[in-house]
Specification:
The longest helix has 11 residues, at 82-92. This protein is an alpha/beta fold. The strands form 2 sheets. A 9-stranded mixed sheet has the order 4-3-2-1-5-6-7-13-9. Strands 8-12-10-11 form a 4-stranded antiparallel sheet, with no helix packed on it. The relative contact order is 0.15. It folds into 2 domains: 3-133, Rossmann fold (3-Layer(aba) Sandwich); 140-213, Jelly Rolls (Sandwich). The protein has helices at residues 13-22, 34-40, 57-64, 82-92, 108-116, 118-123, and strands at 3-6, 27-31, 47-50, 70-73, 98-101, 128-131, 135-140, 143-147, 155-160, 164-171, 177-183, 198-202, 208-213. The chain starts with a strand and ends with a strand. Helices cover 24% and strands 32% of the residues. It is built from 6 helices and 13 strands.
């Protein structure tokens, strides 16, 4: 079963409600303050993780009354963030795919960390993405095919996660590449666009962050 992680960052409730109506068959893992977004939509999670230092006490107690929810309590002085713990849980549950909502927001340190932890799912061969109302973010390390009518927005950016990404070939894009490389510290891969109905990204070595964006 696919997993939906609701983290404690900024969440557009209308976007989450629309997503939930279209994707109800998912194992829901709430992360601390993420419970508050679920509460607004009357959604009951399967698991709740965190140190519970940011969620409303009233909402936390409301969900604790439900015996079907599994709570995973952690000390606030821990090595991993709550979202990282939730992702590890989703992987341990053998999720077929993982979507994370609420992973971005005002805290840029958390946002960057949440993009980096996607590597854990990539290494396990599990498709994993971060969604908000403007962006879909995921990692690749080999080849993907994209369809224009299924992308999240007009702009597609490629950013190296590893120090360099080698052997990049882009077809079907406004700005193609042929066996080229991207290195950390350069902005060459930002704001590309698909010009064909289908496009392909291939890489030979390294890991790319793919961001599909809309204004």
């Amino acid at each position: 079963m696919e997993a939906l992680i609701i983290a404690g960052g900024e969440i557009n409730i209308e976007s989450l409600e629309k997503y939930w109506k279209e994707n109800k068959e998912k194992n829901i893992i709430a992360v601390d303050k993420g419970l508050e977004a679920l509460y607004q939509l009357s959604i009951v999670p399967n698991h709740v993780v965190g140190d519970f230092d940011s969620v409303s006490t009233e909402i936390l107690e409301y969900y604790k009354k439900n015996p079907q929810i599994v709570f995973h309590n952690y000390n606030s002085e821990k090595d991993n963030t709550d979202t990282d713990i939730a992702l590890e849980l989703a992987i341990s549950l053998r999720s077929s795919a993982i979507t994370i909502v609420g992973a971005l927001g005002k805290r840029m340190d958390h946002a960057l960390a949440n993009i980096h932890i996607l590597k854990e799912a990539l290494e396990e061969g599990i498709p994993c993405e971060i969604l908000d109302e403007h962006n879909r973010i995921y990692l690749i390390k080999n080849k993907i095919k994209m369809k224009k009518n299924q992308t999240y927005g007009k702009y597609i950016s490629l950013i190296p996660l590893t120090s360099t990404v080698e052997g990049i070939t882009l077809t079907g894009f406004k700005y193609p590449l042929v066996d080229d490389s991207l290195a950390i510290g350069k902005s060459l891969g930002i704001s590309n666009e698909m010009i064909e109905e289908e496009a392909t990204i291939k890489i030979k070595k390294g890991i790319l962050i793919i961001i599909e964006s809309r204004d």
